[in-house]
């Protein structure tokens, strides 16, 4: 996810700042400085937004700890100008687990609001302090910053509870539906509601000149569709294995194929990943990226054996397609070689899975156990 800078880690979860993160602080300094008219307001903006991101981080840690509780690994939390993302390895399909993981984020903000509310009488805050802080007419004081954070912390909880993917509210809504309905159906309904909410959000933002909110609405609209499509694909592919979708006739290289020959083959065939075979045994693997990099640094006369990857674990005929997809994602590959009892059999990748999926959808109800021509 682009380049980011590690701040620290909690229970093995890296908290990282996306490289664009400083933009939000510049924006805060500029925006607050212009509205409030001065350096003090600019500083107010930077402090207030930084503290809000502390609350965003706690919110993401809420999701993360709930995920860890259910044994779901959390890779990292990345903070970017549009908010925070906790990268979970997967979202459990058990409704109660998804519900708890989704609720845990906003719950942190609610808890923070309750704790902060205790300080309102201590600091002697009244309504005037809140309106002054929000209109940036209060000076840079602890009370004013507190009032600002207090309101926006509540806003964080409420905004995230809007029932639209990928917001927490969308996941909560789906998990509640999934307690009664089938998972795919629950997702379809939640995604449709999410899109309707996004349309209203977008229209409201257009008429009120909230350009930032328009972007969020567009993002939410497309994310809802993507979530529904991903779940549909996952459920359709469930129960199928490599043997149903792999290409037995994919082009292969030998260790002595030159990079130029490999590049020509790639251009001619449109295939972008090549198993490397020696005496019909898999000895390596070359991706499009490996090839184009090596062509530049080493030249076209280099042998494939000099650049091929030797550490790729092949899949077998009975490996579930969902497992293949997961591996392609985590290992950032487009395809994997298929090997059974030490014998190379073919190639399986995004392309083959997509092709198989479209065959399945077009022949609904027919179960093609082996499609070897993919
Ligand atoms: Zn959240």
Largest sheet: 4 strands, mixed
Percentage of residues in strands:
5-15%
Count up the domains: 3
Structural class: alpha+beta
Ends: how far apart? 32 Å
| Sheet with the most strands: spatial strand order | 1-2-3-4
Taking pLDDT < 50 over at least 5 consecutive residues as the criterion, the unreliable ranges are 368-374
Radius of gyration: 26 Å
How is this structure best summarized?
The protein has 374 residues and is α+β, with helices and mostly antiparallel strands.
Could you list some keywords that capture this structure?
four-stranded mixed sheet; CBS-domain; 374 residues; elongated; two-stranded antiparallel ribbon; 13 helices; 3 domains; binds zinc ion; disordered C terminus; 14% strand; alpha+beta
Write the layout of secondary structure elements.
Elements lengths: L3 E7 L2 E6 L3 H15 L2 H31 L4 E7 L2 E6 L6 H29 L3 H8 L7 H19 L7 H11 L4 H26 L2 H27 L4 H4 L13 H11 L3 E6 L2 E7 H11 L22 H11 L3 E6 L2 E7 H13 L12
Parallel strand pairs: 2-3
Antiparallel strand pairs: 1-2, 3-4, 5-6, 7-8
Helix pairs in contact: 1-2, 2-3, 2-5, 3-5, 3-6, 4-5, 6-7, 7-8, 10-11
Explained architecture:
There is one protein chain. With 374 residues, the protein is an alpha+beta fold. The protein has helices at residues 22-36, 39-69, 95-123, 127-134, 142-160, 168-178, 183-208, 211-237, 242-245, 259-269, 288-298, 321-331, 350-362, and strands at residues 4-10, 13-18, 74-80, 83-88, 273-278, 281-287, 335-340, 343-349. It has three domains: 1-161, no CATH class; 162-237, no CATH class; 242-362, CBS-domain, CATH 3.10.580.10. The relative contact order is 0.07. The model is unreliable at 368-374 (pLDDT under 50). Zinc ion (ZN) is lined by residues 59, 63, 105, 160, 168.
């Amino acid at each position: 996810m682009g380049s980011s800078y590690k701040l620290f880690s909690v229970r093995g979860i890296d908290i990282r700042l996306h490289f664009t993160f400083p933009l939000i602080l510049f924006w805060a300094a500029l925006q607050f400085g212009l509205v409030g008219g001065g350096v003090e307001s600019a500083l107010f903006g930077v402090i207030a937004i930084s503290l809000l991101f502390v609350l965003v981080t706690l919110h993401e840690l809420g999701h993360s700890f709930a995920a860890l509780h259910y044994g779901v690994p959390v890779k990292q939390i990345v903070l970017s100008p549009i908010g925070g993302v906790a990268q979970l390895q997967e979202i459990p399909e058990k409704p109660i687990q998804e519900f708890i993981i989704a609720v845990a984020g906003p719950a942190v903000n609610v808890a923070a609001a309750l704790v902060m509310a205790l300080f309102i009488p201590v600091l002697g805050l009244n309504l005037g302090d809140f309106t002054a802080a929000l209109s940036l007419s209060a000076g840079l004081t602890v009370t004013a910053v507190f009032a600002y954070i207090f309101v926006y912390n509540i806003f964080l909880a409420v905004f995230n509870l809007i029932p639209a993917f990928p917001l927490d509210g969308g996941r909560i809504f789906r998990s509640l539906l999934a307690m009664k309905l089938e998972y795919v159906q629950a997702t379809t309904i939640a995604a449709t509601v999410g899109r309707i909410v996004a349309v209203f959000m977008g229209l409201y933002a257009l008429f009120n000149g909230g350009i930032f909110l328009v972007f969020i609405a567009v993002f939410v609209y497309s994310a809802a569709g993507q979530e529904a499509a991903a779940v549909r694909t996952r459920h359709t592919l469930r129960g199928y294995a490599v043997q149903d979708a792999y290409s037995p006739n994919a082009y292969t290289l030998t260790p002595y194929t030159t990079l130029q020959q490999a590049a020509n083959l790639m251009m001619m065939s449109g295939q972008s990943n090549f198993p490397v075979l020696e005496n019909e045994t898999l000895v390596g693997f070359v991706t499009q990226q490996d090839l184009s990099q090596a062509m530049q640094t080493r030249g076209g006369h280099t042998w494939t054996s000099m650049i091929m990857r030797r550490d790729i674990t092949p899949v077998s005929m009975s490996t579930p397609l969902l497992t293949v997809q997961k591996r392609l994602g985590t290992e950032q590959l487009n395809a994997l070689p298929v090997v059974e009892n030490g014998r190379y059999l073919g190639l399986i990748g995004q392309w083959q899975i997509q092709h198989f999926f479209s065959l399945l959808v077009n022949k609904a109800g027919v179960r093609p156990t082996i499609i070897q021509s993919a």
